[in-house]
Amino acid sequence: MAILKLYGGKQASCTRRVATVLHELNVPFELVEIDVMNGAHKKPEYLKFQPFGQIPYIDDDGFILYETRAICRYIAAKHPKSGLIPTDPKSNALFEQAASVELTNFDPSASKAGLQLWIKKMGYTYPTDDKVIADHLETLEKKLDAYEAILSKQRYVAGETITLADIFHLPYGVYVTYDGSESDNIMNRASRPNVARWYKELVSRPSWLAYLDGVKTTTAY
């Protein structure tokens, strides 16, 4: 069987999210790097497989799939014993609830603020808007108060075991910390000790730490 191919950028947020899940499940993969800076993702040969011209997508022995969360769900579904997608109906419902919360309450502000903070940290020349960053961080602070209430009652966002819903918060959960210091940032407030505890556990996982210098082809774990 052919090795799974991940088409994306080694420093790209969504590529790393997928790679983190692949690492969690010990799935070998080849990174096929797409030259986004020179518009390779907008060329006809790429659009044949990803019609929106976005990264990443995967080729799993001829099966093409795009959209980060769909890719992660597919990979986890092939490894049901991992528990990253619970199969019990009630546990699955709580997982889907948490995954929806990430998509609708966390990601909109975290991605918009986080991406601009990442651009600034990397020293790129793309324009950024400090007001946009501040506005989205303000919104995110309020959302994280709700996270604190949830996480004060359970270890992870969907219950007592980690699921894709937790991993989905990476990497934008990391990017938004670039607005503060290591000990005082939006994910590590003294006023939200359970969010801080949860966040520290996520970013300490070997699957996340494996690609601190960028995603790379991984055939052995």
UniProtKB/TrEMBL annotation:
The keyword tRNA processing does not apply. Its EC number is 2.5.1.18. It catalyses: RX + glutathione = an S-substituted glutathione + a halide anion + H(+). Residues 88-221 form the GST C-terminal domain. One of its GO terms (biological process) is glutathione metabolic process. Signal peptide: none annotated. The keyword rRNA-binding does not apply. Residues 2-83 form the GST N-terminal domain. Keywords: Transferase. GO terms for molecular function: glutathione binding; glutathione transferase activity. InterPro entries: Glutathione-S-Trfase_C-like (IPR010987), Glutathione-S-Trfase_C_sf (IPR036282), Glutathione_S-Trfase (IPR040079), Glutathione_S-Trfase_N (IPR004045), GST_C (IPR004046), Thioredoxin-like_sf (IPR036249). It comes from the Eukaryota. PANTHER family: GLUTATHIONE S-TRANSFERASE RHO. Belongs to the GST superfamily. This is glutathione transferase. The lineage of its organism: Eukaryota, Fungi, Dikarya, Basidiomycota, Agaricomycotina.
